[in-house]
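Rotation project, supervised by the postdoc (A.L.). Task for the rotation student: set up a whole-complex structure prediction and record inputs and outputs verbatim in this book. Inputs entered:
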Amino acid sequence: MIEVKNLCKRYGDHTALSDLSFTIEKGQIYGFLGPNGAGKSTTMNIMTGCLAASSGSVSIDGYDIFEDADEAKRRIGYLPELPPLYLDRTPREYLTFVARAKKIPSAQIKEQVAHVMQVTQISDVADRLIKNLSKGYKQRVGIAQAILGDPEVIILDEPTVGLDPKQIIEIRDLIQQLGKKHTVILSSHILSEVQAICQTILIISKGKLVACDTPENLERLFAGSTTVELRTEASKAEVQQIISGLSELSGSKTKELPDGGCSVRLECSGNDSDSFCRQIFFAFADAKKAILELSVAKASLEDIFIELTSAEQSDKPAAVSSEIKEEVSELIENTEKEEHE
Amino acid sequence: MNAVFRHEVSSHFHSLSAYVFGAFLLLFGGVYTMVMNLNNLLTNFEFVMGNMAFIFLIIVPILTMRVLAEERRQKTDQLLYSLPISMTDVVLGKFGALLVMLLIPLAIIALYPVVLSAFGNIHFPTAYGAMLGFFLLGAALIAIGLFISSITESQAVAAGLCFVVMLLNYYISDLATFVAATAFASFSAFAAVIVILALLINMMTKNGTISLIFAAVGEGALLAGYLLNASSFEGLFPKVMESLSLFDRFYVFVNGVFDLSAVVYFITVIALFLFLSVQSMERRRWND
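Outputs recorded:
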């Protein structure tokens, strides 16, 4: 469907992309993941012909984006990071212009515009000026523009950035719907988002592709030891004593909490997390100290992401300090919580 | 092209600049018709067009400043790049829409000679010949304005730069006469122009080598020409400037001559600047 070969992009001395190659198959939702400045937008801009690559090629259905630009672009709908909207027009006028530019037969324009407006639920603001619309609606107008003309591939650059949680959920639902009929490629730096909607994840870091797989496979691939996190009323010294009896323990970290209790992170050398949890439970029960919270943490996409994207920076890929990991996952959890509220 | 053209025409009607452009043309057309034809009882409508031409200095920058600069600032150019249309379509569509904005007030002004003919003998061929010259002059200036709008993302910079270029074009033949008629003065003036052009090329392409080569070749050829035949340089600079000035070419029409070479010159200038605009749009893809 889409073939990206040895893509390079240099801005003067700065290399934004180096030797990026991947293939996109039909009928899936792909997620581009990477920290800010990793080259996600640059890649998308090159794939849609908005930017010229220093070297390498992009072909869509066999049509090169530069050699057969018209044919290739007809198969793509693109929503850039900032929706390219004419603010002093109404969505209907704007979409009519895009429909004409996409060479939709004039007899069908009215009908198709009405259809995409219905799909993106902007019909009720169709005749208001775009500059007066909320950010969520503007984003929808941008998506409507991208899906107009029924292109086979829809490329969305950070489609949910800057939206409120309700809008984010609505846009995600919309993308999932689109994924049933089209190939969708979206970029994001929000992991949970990509995990929730994408069937395949491409992780990009510093202009290089570092991983490309399904979220499940990535997790399985990187699932090393099981980690159990718990909160207890026992003090630090008591915790040390209790856990010293655990047979499968391979590492631990204890942090005292202001209420006198502790939060503990235990790493298990075995794979059976259930039996490890049982051991922990009875160890604490025997010591007559209650466990107030207990959770099993699997290697999440966050960990994989951090590991992969920071591997580029240091020579030792595995040597990501767990403190940074923790901090980041806390941060991500917090934002997720905010999102869902 | 059709899509961009229709979109641009309706965009112009949504913005104030097209109305300002048309209103100024009509206002000055009306004022000069009153002064020339009604008060001074002249039957030469071409003088009205001749006197009006200076108004382009002010209104062309107003009309063209946002056309491409705003696309870039609002990032809507990304839409144009990702749509299955070429940059030639975009530039031609936009230029066509700008011409419509010029044609609408001109169509109204075109009625004046007909109305005036009821009260005296109007010589229609010279009147409408001058009007055609006026339209071509406007189209050429608009093409230059369009190009200037394509090299910046700020409307204000585009308007300012466009105004300076129009002003230079308007006064260039007057200014050039200040250059002494000696061969050496002409030679120095040309040398200075080549340096300025080389600097402009450097600014636009950000490629030092190309501009250096341009400067070296240009100055070399100039020096060779001067050494071989110095006498031909006498008074050459003012002459060349006069023939380059778009306004001076237009005044030939006002004097009642239908100058075909001027028509060709206007069309060449239009084609050149539209081509440069397309190139300038294409270049953005390479080093955004």
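Student's summary: Chain A touches chain B at residues 11, 45, 48-52, 69-71, 73-74, 76, 78, 80, 82, 84-89, 93, 97-98, 100-103, 145 (CB under 8 Å).
Supervisor addendum: The first helix of chain A runs from residue 40 to 47.
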